Amino acid sequence: MIEPTGRVRVVIVNHNGGDLLLRSVRSVLESDWSGPLDLVVIDNDSTDGSPDPLDDIERVTLLRRSTNEGFPANNHGFADLLGDEFAHDLPPPDGVLLLNPDAALRPDALRLLAHAIDQEGGI
To answer: What is the mean pLDDT of residues 2-8?
Structure first.
């Protein structure tokens, strides 16, 4: 069960996502989630400059990889859930959402997803 005040981490893996990455990040940051919200972007060696604007957004943890690790790069975003230490001092989350860089969330999406998980008795 994910409480409405629980810590949620959204992990976005990017590779040359262009302007869609920034749109996706903004949609997460505009969420109406009432608890702590961590946003981790893992960039897989983009050459289009798409992760560069994120350097100036304080609420985003940006992990730049020197190779394109593909979807398995998500493991860097939730290492603490796998028993490894997360490199950026974020507490372990109560729930994790994996989001593609070409997807955008509605403001109520995290709240509705947490409610749906609660109704189903967890995953």
So the answer is: 86
> What is the greatest pairwise CA distance in the chain?
42
Kindly report the three-state secondary structure assignment for every residue of the chain: CCCCCCCEEEEEEECCCCHHHHHHHHHHHCCCCCCCEEEEEEEECCCCCCCHHHHHCCCEEEEEECCCCCHHHHHHHCHHHHCCCCCCCCCCCCEEEEECCCCCCCCCHHHHHHHHHHHCCCC
C-alpha–C-alpha distance, residues 42 and 13, integer Å: 5
Tokens standing for residue 84: 């490894």
Q: Identity (one letter) of the amino acid at 31?
A: S
Return the number of other C-beta atoms located less than 10 Å from residue 65's C-beta: 16
Q: How many other β-carbons are positioned within 10 Å of the β-carbon of residue 88? A: 13
**pTM over the 0.85 mark:** yes
